[in-house]
């Protein structure tokens, strides 16, 4: 209870200014209903007290009192009392992910039909669909690194951009994985919404493993997953990928014929640092003024009392 009282405040306290005219109107109406006060200016008080009949037995509660009570309760409700927080409807339900996709001639190998690159793009499309509403960004790399798309929840745009990638349009052959991961981490860091990095590659050059190991504290600060664009049977023999996953401190996942790999990676990405962990983005104070509506309804019932308004 003490914690609730400590958190109790108003979302729109300026509405309380309406209490001033409410009380002034009530005072004006209250004095206007006092017949004794009106006659006191023209009749001697001793005579007036003798002439007054039934005044002492009259109810002190008038319709004006009830009206101002309804007004006060309504103003407090509109002012937005609150004492607890709730998830913001404007925050993403799932954390974003930056996909780092290798686009080199080796990704044209057909051990994954129709080839590794096409299968990787298909798997990426399935992943984006499985994480409906989550933001996904894309970095393409070969010998050079390119930001294709910043994080966006639009899966159609993501699919179109990924399908347009091919080794022929990359300006330089090679392997710049370390730089690509660094760029993806920078994009996530600048976005300020947490998230994770997903690398999709078939091989990792030895010099890139060394660069990833040497990055140390300056390397990626986000949870990383390495999705190997290889048949599951080839994964154990891919020493470069296993070493690269260790250098990235990443989970290693092969591309399976079914959706088990997509489901596993989607679950892992959803556990990454979420938007709700970012101050001011994931939560907001919950509106609680609606709890006063039953009290307003109860006060309004008095107006249905027969003859009460006219009789007063």
TrEMBL record:
<keyword id="KW-1133">Transmembrane helix</keyword>
<dbReference type="Pfam" id="PF13519">
    <property type="entry name" value="VWA_2"/>
</dbReference>
<protein>
    <recommendedName>
        <fullName>VWFA domain-containing protein</fullName>
    </recommendedName>
</protein>
<keyword id="KW-0812">Transmembrane</keyword>
<dbReference type="InterPro" id="IPR002035">
    <property type="entry name" value="VWF_A"/>
</dbReference>
<dbReference type="InterPro" id="IPR036465">
    <property type="entry name" value="vWFA_dom_sf"/>
</dbReference>
<feature type="transmembrane region" description="Helical">
    <location>
        <begin position="66"/>
        <end position="83"/>
    </location>
</feature>
<feature type="domain" description="VWFA">
    <location>
        <begin position="97"/>
        <end position="202"/>
    </location>
</feature>
<dbReference type="InterPro" id="IPR050768">
    <property type="entry name" value="UPF0353/GerABKA_families"/>
</dbReference>
<feature type="transmembrane region" description="Helical">
    <location>
        <begin position="12"/>
        <end position="29"/>
    </location>
</feature>
<keyword id="KW-0472">Membrane</keyword>
